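Dear Dr. H.,

I hope your travels went smoothly. While you were away I took the liberty of generating a structure for the chain from your last submission, since the lab meeting agenda had it listed for discussion. I wanted you to have the full record in hand beforehand rather than looking at slides cold. The sequence, exactly as received, is reproduced here:
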Amino acid sequence: MGEYPLVDCIRALSEGQTPETMEIPGGTAVIRKSTEGIQKAYTLPSFADVRDKKKSFKTAFNLFYQNRDLNPLIQPQDTRSLVQFPRRC
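The corresponding predicted structure, in token form, is as follows:
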């Protein structure tokens, strides 16, 4: 459940990474100010667009569904972004 992401997080911290730069598999979701360096990520429509526009909601749903935990997902929210990393296989 949560033990693998926790171990990965501890390992990354011991290697000198910061929480802002970690990429932790296992379905972990984090808030980032910058999404630079996250490879093969799909960017969903922003939260505000999804909330206010049916077409944006449909687009976000389809991207989320088709991704099937293959790549990270990024959704902008105000000045930050929600990043969800894929589950561990």
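Two observations you may find useful: The beta strands are 29-32, 42-43, 73-77, 80-84. The radius of gyration is 14 Å.

With kind regards,
E. W.
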